[in-house]
N-terminal kinase-like protein (Rhynchospora pubera), 829 residues
Amino acid sequence: MFKFLKEVVSGSGSGLKDLPYNIGEPYASAWGSWVHYRGTSKDDGSPVSIFSLSGSSSQDRHLAAGRNGVKRLRTVRHPNILSFLHSTEVEGFDGPSQKHTIYIVTEPVMPLSEKLKELNLGGTQRDEYYAWGLHQIAKAVSFLNNDCKLVHGNVCVSSVVVTQTLDWKLHAFDVLSEFDANNEAANSPMLQFEWLVGAQYKPMELSKSEWATIRKSPPWAIDAWGLGCLIYEIFSGLKLTKTEELRNTASIPKSLLPDYQRLLSSAPSRRMNPSKLIDNSEFFQNKLVETIQFMEILNLKDSVEKDSFFRKLPNIAEQLPREIVLKKLLPVLASSLEFGSAAAPALTVLLKMGAWLPPDQFNTKVLPTIVKLFASNDRAIRVSLLQHIDQFGDSLSSQIVDEQVFPHVATGFADTSAFLRELTLKSMLVLAPKLSQRTLSGSLLKYLSKLQVDEEPAIRTNTTILLGNIASYMNDGTRKRVLINAFTVRALRDTFPPARSAGILALTVTSSYYDMTEIATRILPNVAVLTIDPDSDVRTKAFQALDQFLSIARQNHEKLTTGVESNVGNSTGVQPNANSSLLSWAMSSLTQKGKASDHAPIVNANSSTVSSATSNSSLVTDVQSTAPVRTASMSSFEQVAPPSPTRSADGWGDAEDGSVPDLGDEDGGWDDVDPFEEPKPNSLTNIQAAQKRPVSQPKQPAVNSSRAPPATKSTIEAEDDPWGSVTAPVPKPATKTLNPKPASSSSARNDDDLWGSIAAPAPKSTVKPLKPATVNDDSDPWAAIAAPPPTTRAKPLSSLGRGRGTKQSQPKLGAQRIDRTSSSGSSGF
């Protein structure tokens, strides 16, 4: 029999050396003869609690009671009962004498008496926390008495421990026995180890060993008395020494006093059932108990109840004890969010509670949950994460951002919601510094190239601002390939005025990244055009930018003149401090939806005002980008690119790494942006020049004449006219053929002529072709706006009309067939 009990108790180990836990320092108090130690797991170092009980021989009655406690703790499972992990019994020697020891390993807990001293609560906060703890112990006792028909026998402050989340749990099951109500007349002890219970904790019937009376009483009679003793000890702060002290009710709250007196009734049958104590007592109806109970059954609540609860929770958390909020509510809230039972507003509460934690605890208790939430498909959760990313972004490591966060955040770049696209864009200001060069150059810039042509003008503007702010994180090759094309070719030509302003500001902030050649040939010409911009804010920023870049050019000139620096051509020679400040966000797409007029160039300086920009409070700026924005109608103010001495091979360029996911653009990045190599005149100037130029009309072809315009004249005109490439082509001289061919599409419509849409129309020929042909050339981009072919019907040769250049046919001899159709048509003509 002893061997069997030893095998049951010993668990997986046969000795202390096989115990997979390290035993640490003991606590000052424990129940009965047990010693409570701190401990850790040998596998992962996780904390545990280790209880030990020693005896001089294996037949020691304390060891027998301890084996009963181990067996009961192993088999009885409840959320408010201490969780069993491992147990073993070892034999050893304490000097010359033999020693037997039982070890029980449980979840990490702390004696209740020590925890209450550590918390040192007072007033309402103390009562609310005690109410929650008593609520948990009452549920455990009710489970044992009503559901399992077991009697604990010694409920007191020593038999209660507190977990790391400040939950109260019941243990000390050495006296635990079944309630034997079938044999009411028996006088044998029902509790085999009742001698372990102190006299001060025994009710009258137990102290007198009236077992018949006990068997006739309800199963909860003994433990209800124990609950009364526990209430007295925690509120008085004193350990019970004799039964008479229970009559001192000065420390008991008034709302709990009636239930306290019913628990300590002298008649066992009249003592309150612990289950009714939970349901009926007014003392348990407080904010802390109701909040924790709601969160424990969160899955059973509907969305309306959840939203209402989480919106009130921040104010409630302010009123609760800070340590209880951090150790109890915060883990429950994090678990609810992680497993999807909590709504999006709970994330705001989680971050508010997490802000009360030290940085190291925030990284272990809150940050793992947040990282998992980035994989959520709930759009509300994703929006909430992006809105508050500045609160936890600094705590994210570079590896976590690059491998776990960015792949999920990047899906927002292509989201159908403009608001989510904008939040994704703004989050890059926090995440971009933690991205690897592979991800930054190969993936992020491709997404930004799409957003710079987004349908929302605010998103286009903020994309330019973001590029200026993250330029310092790009390598030199990426900056050379991206910045000038993004700012000059796209941003400065945007139809939205704030986008043009953002392009100017981005150029000034990143001025130290451009060499003197780029400044002189690509930046200054593009910025100078904006000095005549209809929008006053754009003009002001353009003049400021010109002053800055001209100052750089002037310093370069002085250094070249004095010969101080020999290699000025590859450096600006100055290091502006503008790069140290960040551009602020221009506006939000929530307030600026980008109407049709917002996408048009500006001509009217007195047009309507758009809502001003929303500034990100976390950014620091030295430039004002929140001025009122004016918009105008779709009239002509086209930004023309100046000549470029160098041409980027790929605009923004392909990703340097071929493993970048395809974003729907085979050319990638900014490939559709090509700086112009040749100077192209302003459209208005071109039209005026074409109208003033005399157009030579070809002579009408005659039947008996074959003269053509002299070739030398057209040659001279072509040499004298610098815009000859955009004027109408000179028509070919007519020939004697009766079927002149219409001008071919290749000669009349040149694919390379980008100005064909505004050139003077080709002269119309008076020759009436016999069979005019309709040419549909899909390769001709200007076919839709070219002059239409002649629509006059050619006169048949057999008609009797007076067509110029035709002769009347000679009558034929003999009988002839009459064509009725032709005859009727001729008579009608």
